[in-house]
Amino acid sequence: MVGPWRIEVMAKGNKFDGCSMMRRANDVGATIVRGPDGLTLVLDSPKWKLERGKTYPVELLAGGGKWSARAAADRESVSIPLTDAGFIETLRKADALQVKGDGATIAVPLDRSTAALERLDACYEKNSVSPDSNPFVAPNRRP
Known about the structure:
Blueprint: E1 6-12, E2 15-25, E3 28-35, E4 38-44, E5 55-62, E6 65-73, E7 77-82, H1 85-93, E8 96-100, E9 105-109, H2 113-128
Antiparallel strand pairs: 1-2, 2-3, 3-4, 4-7, 5-6, 5-8, 6-7, 8-9
């Protein structure tokens, strides 16, 4: 835990798949996933009834920065790949994030997110490197 953020390793089967940081605020779950393709923001709510596979235009605002993107819908969640490097840097330093859609604005508090994003990056770097040797076998001795 880093403040309100829970950092976790994600796996598919026995294979490392990435790291995530998650928090809940105002009945909305906010998760930032760090995977091989970079960062993705996932927002979810049990109150949402979305059309799976549909994309929605959204505008993200954080720390004076603004970025337009497309949110891909699932039944109760949307995912937004964060591909703009400038916006990501602004997001890392911001106190709050607003995601504006046609029908609503979702506010995500970003308290302690700078430290949480650093931990997220460290989690990904640590776990994405496959070990060169088996830690349960003694290395060969060389003269």
